[in-house]
Design goal:
nucleus; Nse4/EID; Nse4_Nse3-bd; DNA repair; DNA damage; about 45% helix; 3-stranded antiparallel sheet
């Protein structure tokens, strides 16, 4: 027996030399069984359970002649379709899905005990009114009692009626969500940002950069960067001063370096192409400056006045309105 053989019994082994005619007959029979199940896939109720069972039994007998992988694939496909068909038929049965109708049960009970519904059903409208039972007549509980006595002679306890009568039918509650009614008076159109607004912001930055450059020209000696940018009265403007100073350093009009452990800035001449050829490189630096650093710089360098004049509070125009 080779490593590829499937031990299914003495006569059910993998046989690559199986008779071609036998293999062809096995495939044909499998396709015939598969076709019958496929014809009823959409309507499983039209396919009798006995017939489905017969198809599976025929496949079991036919499996004894399967000795190759292709025929085994046809067998597995057939069993898969048969199992799906059985599952569809089981779902279609809806076993135990019928709900107990309490109202219908009560109406039948009242009718059996001679209630008003029983009178209306028993006597037609054109019958003699004297033959009708009085509407106020009590129900014949003894009649239903005799029926109960035929089933059990024990006295029913208080919990005897626990069952369908004690179960309340769940009703699905639908919550209506009211649409939010917007007041048109509260609606606001977004402010339109125009090109002249952006142009004004650029002009403001250019003006403040020029002010910082003029101050440095009046103070040509190297100056501590914190003494230059820190405004002891306004943290926000100190941050703005660093922003404006970055433009001067980017354009190589101002140099920044550390001398004896102290960060200083000073005016310089922009580098030439020869300087870059000699190995000069542009470097970028991120300066962390928060409120704690701002307060620390004021204390360490004893900054009382700002070298950069205090600017009025900035006002920004968006559309037709100004915001401070």
């Amino acid at each position: 027996m080779s490593d590829f053989e499937m031990n299914r019994g003495d006569d059910m082994v993998f046989d690559p030399d199986q008779d071609p005619e036998e293999k062809r007959a096995v495939r044909q029979n499998y396709r015939s069984l598969t076709k019958k199940i496929e014809e009823h896939q959409g309507n499983p109720n039209d396919f009798a359970t006995e017939e489905l069972l017969s198809q599976v039994q025929k496949a079991d007998k036919l499996f004894n002649k399967v000795k190759g992988p292709q025929e085994a694939t046809l067998d597995s496909h057939l069993l898969l379709m048969a199992s799906n068909m059985g599952a569809q038929k089981a779902r279609a049965m809806k076993s135990g899905s019928g709900a107990f109708d309490v109202d219908d049960f009560i109406s039948k009970l009242v009718r059996y005990m001679g209630g008003q519904k029983a009178v209306e059903d028993t006597f037609p409208e054109d019958s003699d009114e004297d033959d009708r039972q009085d509407e106020s007549s009590p129900l014949d509980w003894e009649r239903i009692g005799r029926k109960a006595m035929a089933k059990s002679r024990r006295v029913p306890t208080m919990g005897f009626m626990l069952g369908p009568l004690s179960i309340e039918q769940k009703k699905r509650t639908v919550t209506k969500r009211s649409k939010l009614e917007k007041n048109k008076e509260d609606e606001r159109k977004p402010q339109e940002l125009r090109e002249e607004d952006i142009q004004r912001s650029e002009n403001e930055t250019t003006k403040n950069v020029a002010i910082l450059l003029a101050i440095l020209k009046d103070n040509p000696d190297p100056v501590n960067i914190f003494r230059f940018v820190v405004n002891p009265n306004d943290f926000a403007q100190s941050v703005e001063n660093i922003f404006y100073l970055s433009f001067l350093i980017r354009d190589a009009k101002v140099a920044f370096e550390t001398v004896d452990g102290e960060p200083v800035i000073y005016l310089c001449h922009p580098p030439t192409e020869k300087d870059y050829e000699d190995g000069l490189k542009k470097n970028q630096m991120v300066l962390e400056f928060d409120m704690a650093t701002w307060k620390r710089a004021i204390d360490v360098f004893n900054i009382t006045d700002s070298m950069i004049p205090q600017r009025p509070p900035a006002r920004t125009r968006l559309g037709d309105k100004w915001y401070g």
